Amino acid sequence: MKGTYNGLVGPTNGFVAEYSGFFTLTINSDRYFDGWMNVGDRRYPLGGRFDNQGHAGVTIYKQVWDDCYCYPYLLLVWVVSLQLVPDTDQIQGDADNVYYGWSTSLFGYRAYGKQDEPVPQKGRYTLRLPTGADPAVAPSGEGYGIVTVNSHGRLQAYGALADGTVYSRSAAISTNGWWPFYFPLNGGKGALIGWLNFNAMPGSDVAGDLTLAKPRNDERKYYPDGYIGTVAASGSRYTAPSSSTLALTWTNGIFQVSGGNLSSPAMNSIGLLPGGKLINNGGSISKIKFTLNRGTGKFAGKFTHPESGKSTSYAGVLDQGQDIGAGYFLGSNQGGLVRLEAAP
Amino acid sequence: MRIRPGILIAIAAVFAVLIGGRFLGWFGGKPSEVAGGGEPPAVTPGGATSPGPETPATALPPRATPVRPAPVVARPTETAVVPQPPPAAALIGDWEERIDGVLTGQEDEAQKAKLLLALFPKLPEDGQVEAAQHISNLLPDEEYSSLAQTLTNAAMPEAVLDVLMTDVLNRPNQLKLETLLDVARMPNHPKAEEARDVLEVFVDENYGEDWAAWKTAVEKWLKENPDE
Fold first, then answer.
1. Backbone phi, psi, residue B145, to 5°
2. A312 vs chain B: nearest CA distance in angstroms?
């Protein structure tokens, strides 16, 4: 029973961003536990003790003031029920928001502990977050992630979505290789949420489908109507090149941009030199600047937008498993895709 | 006003005792009130004081009140306001029981986290890692500054810093970026490069060693992207 558990919060019968989130808790040898759950951008403490059957209940109150702001009192907000599933590393539960009158569910796994080390997933990864969207509806580029798994199975991830929203999250990988990913957007009214798995899959070292929901926001420059869809996340182990080795296996390739207020894709011939330096060999895109962070695999730079003529920033990651680079840029009101790949 | 000779004699006697006591080292064993100055605490597990004759407390530099690290590149001893790793003799043997004792107490989460932070300097590395995990779980965002001081202590074992770096990534942007900036600007901090990589993604630029530019960029980013 002892160990750290983490997982996702969400309704079992459909996605609702405000009812979704992440939870983590650490159980000690006497079955006491502490942790927190993050639902809709709010963090709530979880604490208590599991009984012999692996069941625990948690009530969460918030302090409110009376009408004259004279006296505080406690208002019950959450009733959480947790159950450690016997003979498994699973935990599940329900969370009833008695304040607003809705319920959601929790599900998670036990994370790697000392007894499970060494952690086979230890290492650095780059993660691609493609939306595959029509640029008129949602950003069509690829968000990216830099992922580090330490020797204890703790995972840190940070990067940006294809609309430029930056994120950082951490979690603990479960003993069966699952990574619960949750990042709240727009104060919890939106989210990027789902499970990724580190077990070997063809073409990637970590993959999974994430739900991405961005709510309407009239003040937002890009896609103010909001959007919802699936991000087929995938990533590969990343080995940092030295100043004299190649970051990908090829040296002659193409730099291509599409979407992002371009009526048709634009392309340049490039050379990718040892250490990650890029040579622009010409094409329909001018003034390509490129910088690779050799340590993380993140690349970034600028190019002149072939149609608007504006200097445009882009960013992404190298995917050494697929031998490509992928990322995003933002046009005047649409997101676009950046790709680096071997010349055909 | 006239002072009675008896009072003058009494005052002189008190001063004599104080000065004599100082020379005799009576005040040399007073335990530090602020854990984690330049020297490790001298408190033994049993709570007895054990002043070392070579390092009397009166010879120590003044203890600083806990503050955020100054915005300059600084040696860890200058910014480390939370406990340095203690000498082996001061470590708690039954640390698991002590941590469990805090966790099973009646205090609220934030108070438990503070009790664990107070216990921190007396824990061996394994205990510090476990305590750091619980503190991360228990400490609300409003109280995060006390934990930030531990993360910005470059002398902490790397396994502890791993836990705290993992935690800070789930905190609100304001806490996260300001703490990461403090970590990044410490060249000998084991997590400095990692912190800088994260900051680079947020502010979309690498300012190298120009910490004023990093600070301006972080402040600008936070202003444009306030926590909701």
1. -55, -35
2. 13
DSSP assignment of A90-138, as one string?
A: EEEEEEEETTTTEEEEEEEEEBP-GGGPSPTT-EEEEEEEE----TTTS
pLDDT tens digits for range A34-87: 999 999 878 999 999 999 999 999 999 988 898 898 998 999 999 999 999 999
The answer to whether B163 contacts A25, with C-beta atoms less than 8 Å apart, is no
**CB-based contact (8 Å) between A150 and chain B?**
yes
Topology of the domain comprising A123-237? Porin (2.40.160)
The reported pTM is 0.82
Q: Where in chain A is the domain with CATH 2.40.160?
A: 3-110, 123-237
- Given CATH 2.40.160, say whether it is the number of domain A3-110: yes
Say which CATH architecture domain A252-342 belongs to: Beta Barrel (2.40)
Helices (H) and strands (E) in chain B, counts: 10, 0
Chain B residues near any Cβ of chain A (below 8 Å)? 96, 99-100, 103-104, 109, 112, 133-134, 137-138, 140-141, 159, 162-163, 165-167, 169-170, 176, 193-194, 197-198, 200-202, 204, 206, 228
This complex has an ipTM of 0.89
